[in-house]
């Protein structure tokens, strides 16, 4: 029997990209009833129908995560129609590449609302049910931009750093209830949002900074999230798993360093 056949999974931003891949994985391989949460109604319904056509279980919940009242209504509807979630994947996020001197307050507030406040409200809500059952899995989709600063990432990078801190804060208090709270930090992944941020010639610049010299696939992130949401991850909490092709580990990456003039070796006596 699939490990999550009796469980309910809530995935935000699940109409496309990483979120959809995660929803398909949890529903079709692990047997969970998945709640497709997204602001794009048509895309969310198509994702749910696709899962159902493949033999899985899915239902759509449309909400604008920038609106705290709408988030609460969505959570109440899930509780009433499906039941309290056992698994939460906070995947939805927004981003923009803007110089620090030009970054507008309105976009800062919107970014924090979607990337930080909405996950906080969702986790706070579902933890009550998870605590009562003595089991739960929360996985927050952050970014390597929350670990290492980058050009144009004032709002996005700061919000993802806050999401990583939020992960640890919830983890330490929820651990004794049998609930784990972890995060994944994707590197450059082939998603519509990343393509928009990395458009044009900058695509090659980002690819050259990757030790694996390629962008990741949404399935790479889905596999990592599925592990952190599984029974096998029960003693892991408060952690951030980078899924980035070695980007964070690389430090100063110099291409073809050893193909040039041989480096002098210092003698030691």
Automatic annotation (TrEMBL):
Designated name of the protein: SDR family oxidoreductase
GO biological process, one term: monocarboxylic acid metabolic process
Cited NCBIfam families: PRK07231.1
Family: Belongs to the short-chain dehydrogenases/reductases (SDR) family.
Pfam families, per the entry: adh_short_C2
Signal peptide: none
Classification via PROSITE patterns: ADH_SHORT
Domain annotation Ketoreductase: ranges: 7-189
InterPro entries, per the entry: KR_dom, NAD(P)-bd_dom_sf, Sc_DH/Rdtase_CS, SDR, SDR_fam
